[in-house]
Amino acid sequence: MRQSPPAPVKALAVRRSIIFDTAKYLAVMALICWGLYSASETLGYNWQWYQVPKYLYSMEEGFAPGPLLEGLFVTFRITAVSMGLAFLIGLGTALCRMSPYVSFRLIARCYMQIIRNSPLLIQLFFIYFVVAPVLDMSAFWAAVLSLSLFEGAYASEIFRAGITSIDSGQFDAAKGQGMPPFVMYVHIILPQAIRRILPPLTGQVVSLVKDSALVSTIAIMDLTMQGQNIIAETFLTFEIWFTVAAMYLIVTLTLSRLAAVMEKRLMLT
Description:
Elements: H1 7-43, E1 57-58, E2 64-65, H2 67-97, H3 102-116, H4 120-135, H5 139-164, H6 168-176, H7 181-211, H8 223-234, H9 237-268
Antiparallel strand pairs: 1-2
Helix pairs in contact: 2-3, 2-5, 2-8, 3-5, 4-5, 5-7, 6-7, 7-9, 8-9
């Protein structure tokens, strides 16, 4: 049998790998920065990054959020409420698809086919211009409902895959103990399924954050809409859009990192 290299050799190899990967990353970033700089020189664009901070925050009378941070807070609110509703809709749809009743399965399938095969922007306009006036619904809740229905259709497949991945013996054992379906799912099935579907659910949350940018089309002052207003007033097109993109990137990377930490903790329990 081949013997594994001693620990000092392994540590040295890992250290060299980290240094090499870091050097490659820095080289790529330097190349990208050089390309952007060359492109800006060719375009003759007058960069004014020094004006961006005042649209993020103000320190005149203590810390006060600027338009971009206020828009980010609105995006957080829409995302948080939509995420909760989307998971409830997704779980309910998944259970309906596995129901022994044909009517439940038919309703769930029709909902999924309609939502997944039509653009989110069209759904948003339909709910805002048709459904919201009938129900006297504000633009905020029209946006939340649109995002929840759209993301819920995709989350339902994730939940269904997680539930069906649980061994059938778990269901039989729970039923043999006389557990009602609600108790069985809450205490036996879902805790195991959540561990398996956490990564794809995180992907749905990240997708929800990015899709929330479309609510700017119905005059909600989210991050994207605030960016558009600032650009219309100042013509700082590239600076503001790059800043908005960086803010979205920070949010999505943070969510992915938190999900990775939660996944590790769930695996240890």
